[in-house]
Design the sequence.
C-alpha cells in the first residue's frame, strides 16, 4: 500500500469525495498565478495541512503530469482525486477545480460580448501576484530536498534552470533530465540489462488545414480536443496553438479577440486553459463555451486514468525510478526558472517586494494557510486602486 493512503470502505468513500470536492472548489476560486502556483497551493493543502500524501509521492505525481500533454495543475487535481477516492475522486477532483474558473470566465465572456470590453483586474493582480511568488517559493523550499537527493539530480536541476532561459524546449529538458539521471544511476548495470523504451505521448493529431470554414460546434469541439491532447508547455505555447487554429486556419477570431481571451485566462483563478471557455462563448454562446471547455480538458482525464496506475510500478523499477527522479529534478528546475520570470514581472516596487517577503516568512516559518494571503493581497490591491493615483 502506498504511503499516505488507507483502504477505501463504503463509509469512507462518500466522505473522501466530499473532501475532494470541497478542497478543489476552494482552490478553483482562489488559485491565481498559473500552474506553478497552483501546484504550490496543492502541496500546501494535501501534503502539509491534510497529510493525504507524502512529499515523495507528491513529487512523483508532479513528474508524471509533466510527461503527459495537458494542463499540469488540472492533472494534479485529477491525480490527487484518483489517489484519494478512486474513479469517483478522479472525476470530482478535476471537475471541481475546473468548474469555478469556467463559471467566472463565462460571466466575463458575457460581459465582453454585451459591452465589448474586459473587466480590468490590474488592481487585483498587483497584490495577489507577490503572494503567488511566495507560494511557489514555499513549494520549492519544501520539495527541493526530496527532489535533489544526489549530485546527478542537483546537476540536472541546475542545468535545466539555466537552459530554460536559452529557450530550450521544456519537454526536451524533462526527458533529457530523466534519461541522464536514469543512466547515471544505473551506469554499472548498463552492460548487463537492456534499457527500457519510454514512449513520448503522440503529438501529431490534427485537422485538415482549411481556411475560413463556417463556424461549427463539432469543429470547435474537435479543435479544442486536439489542442488538449497534444499541448505541452506554458500559456505562451497555448497562445501559439490557438492563433494557428482559430485566427490563421479557421479565421474565426481576430488577434485582438485572441489576446483578450488569453488575458482573461491569466487574470482569473483556476486553470489557464479556461481561455477555451471564453473563446467558445465568443464563437458559439453558452453551448460553444461548454463544448470548448469539455474538449480541451477531456484528454487530461483520459491521460491521468491511463498513467496513474503506472506510477508505483515506475518507482519500484531501478531504471524507471532513476528516470522519474531525473524528471522530478528537471521539473523543479523549470519551476524555479518560471518563478524567476514571474518574480521579475510581479515584484515591481517596495510594496510588492514587501508583500512577497512577508508572505514567504509566514508561509514557511509558521505554515499559515495561503488562502488568507491571497485575500490580503487582493485587499491591498483594492486599497491601492482607491487611494493611489495611477
Sequence:
Amino acid at each position: 500500500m502506498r504511503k499516505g493512503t488507507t483502504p477505501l470502505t463504503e463509509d469512507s468513500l462518500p466522505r473522501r469525495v466530499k473532501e475532494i470536492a470541497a478542497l478543489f472548489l476552494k482552490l478553483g476560486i482562489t488559485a491565481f498565478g498559473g500552474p506553478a502556483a497552483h501546484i504550490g497551493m496543492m502541496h500546501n493543502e494535501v501534503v502539509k495541512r491534510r497529510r493525504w500524501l507524502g512529499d515523495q509521492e507528491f513529487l512523483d505525481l508532479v513528474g508524471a503530469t509533466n510527461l503527459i500533454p495537458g494542463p499540469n495543475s488540472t492533472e494534479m487535481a485529477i491525480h490527487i482525486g484518483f489517489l484519494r477516492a478512486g474513479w469517483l475522486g478522479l472525476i470530482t477532483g478535476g471537475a471541481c477545480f475546473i468548474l469555478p474558473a469556467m463559471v467566472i470566465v463565462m460571466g466575463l465572456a458575457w460581459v465582453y460580448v454585451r459591452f465589448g470590453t474586459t473587466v480590468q483586474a490590474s488592481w487585483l493582480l498587483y497584490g495577489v501576484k507577490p503572494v503567488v511568488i511566495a507560494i511557489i517559493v514555499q513549494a520549492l523550499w519544501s520539495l527541493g530536498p526530496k527532489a535533489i537527493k544526489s549530485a546527478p539530480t542537483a546537476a540536472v536541476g541546475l542545468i535545466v534552470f539555466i537552459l530554460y532561459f536559452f529557450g530550450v524546449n521544456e519537454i526536451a529538458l524533462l526527458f533529457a533530465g530523466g534519461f541522464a539521471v536514469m543512466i547515471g544511476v544505473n551506469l554499472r548495470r548498463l552492460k548487463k540489462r537492456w534499457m527500457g523504451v519510454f514512449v513520448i505521448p503522440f503529438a501529431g493529431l490534427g485537422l485538415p488545414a482549411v481556411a475560413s470554414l463556417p463556424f461549427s460546434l463539432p469543429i470547435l469541439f474537435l479543435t479544442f480536443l486536439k489542442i488538449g491532447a497534444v499541448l505541452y508547455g506554458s500559456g505562451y505555447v497555448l497562445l501559439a496553438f490557438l492563433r494557428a487554429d482559430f485566427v490563421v486556419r479557421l479565421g474565426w477570431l481576430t488577434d485582438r479577440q485572441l489576446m483578450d481571451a488569453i488575458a482573461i485566462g491569466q487574470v482569473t483563478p483556476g486553470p489557464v486553459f479556461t481561455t477555451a471557455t471564453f473563446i467558445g462563448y465568443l464563437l458559439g454562446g453558452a453551448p460553444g463555451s461548454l463544448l470548448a471547455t469539455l474538449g480541451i480538458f477531456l484528454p487530461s482525464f483520459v491521460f491521468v486514468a491511463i498513467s496513474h496506475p503506472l506510477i508505483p510500478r515506475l518507482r519500484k523499477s531501478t531504471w524507471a525510478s532513476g528516470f522519474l527522479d531525473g524528471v522530478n529534478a528537471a521539473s523543479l528546475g523549470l519551476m524555479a526558472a518560471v518563478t524567476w520570470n514571474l518574480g521579475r514581472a510581479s515584484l515591481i516596487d517596495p510594496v510588492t517586494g514587501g508583500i512577497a517577503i512577508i508572505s514567504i516568512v509566514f508561509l514557511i516559518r509558521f505554515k499559515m494557510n495561503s488562502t488568507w494571503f491571497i485575500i490580503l493581497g487582493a485587499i491591498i490591491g483594492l486599497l491601492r486602486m482607491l487611494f493611489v493615483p495611477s
About this structure: The mean pLDDT is 80. DSSP finds 15 helices and no strands in the chain. Residues 265 and 275 are 5 Å apart (CA to CA). Residues 12-200+304-387 form one domain.
